Amino acid sequence: MHSERGPASVRGLDPGAVVEDDTVIHAKRRVTLHDMRRLFPVTDETAAQAFGGTAQGEGVRRATGVRAADVPGAHGGSALVDREWSLAELAAAYAYPEPVAGAPRPWLRANMVSSLDGAAQHDGRSQPISSAADMRIFGTLRALADVIVVGAETVRQEGYRPARARAEFADGRKAAGQAPAPVIAVVSASLELDFSLPLFTSPLVPTLVLTGAAAAADRVAAAEKAGATVVIAGEGTGVEPARAVAALAGLGHTRLLTEGGPRLLGQLIADEVLDELCLTVSPMLTAGDAQRIAGGPSVEVPHRFELASLLEEAGFLFGRYRRS
Known about the structure:
Layout: E1 18-21, E2 24-26, E3 37-40, H1 44-50, H2 87-93, E4 107-115, H3 132-144, E5 147-151, H4 152-158, H5 170-175, E6 183-187, H6 198-201, E7 208-211, H7 217-226, E8 229-232, H8 241-250, E9 255-258, H9 262-270, E10 276-282, E11 305-313, E12 316-323
Parallel strand pairs: 4-9, 4-10, 5-6, 5-9, 6-7, 7-8
Antiparallel strand pairs: 1-2, 3-11, 10-12, 11-12
Pathway: Cofactor biosynthesis; riboflavin biosynthesis
GO molecular function, one term: 5-amino-6-(5-phosphoribosylamino)uracil reductase activity
Domain Bacterial bifunctional deaminase-reductase C-terminal: 106-309
């Protein structure tokens, strides 16, 4: 989920859809990445793909990192292999920066989708501008995170569920010292949340609720009674983004992911705590007045981010931008 949407707006919602990964809903079909290309950073492999799909030398590989000689049954070690990316390769492509020993710095990334004309959704849903590859990356980003930060409105609208453990990422999470599944952290000033939801009553790891010091005592008590851990991250009723990031890091959560919605992302941008934006650009035009990926007041001076990597599949661009 890339934005705050209505109850039927979870990405990938189609007739006959089934729940497969946390809040992700998609059609009953195998989700694969075919013919994905790495466009940036530019390497020998990138140039090789541009010149007819062949390459000379051992150092030239396909974007998946696999040479034909490495694949059983393949011949001609310099030929580029056409196959889908594995989850392990996606995890490597989207890996968080290596933590610094002693005092790991928190790293906050956002994951959003946008049409060519800037819409974060169509008809109240982002599924029409998403793709199978986009959803696979969406699930990978979740599996890499310590915590998923989400706005209260998104939780209210979508009946947010707790993240689940995924066997494909179990070994990697264990090696990184992570819990079996990422924690969900809900940002809320009012705490007007349905604490009977499974997100609060039966998560694999306790859900966090980020709020301000002046939050209503009865709502704090209701959250804690449901099993949530309340984290104070502001002096008033609201949450201060910088304090929220620091509070999560203090709990050992340094690999941070936010999925919005736009109001929350706008606050994170304004407070200059966003380190990275993973943005899917969909090759579609929607017109209309759909909201953008970030809302709220404009910043005084636009914040410059640098392109870290760019993948392409079926016209969809998957960019990673890091703060300059």
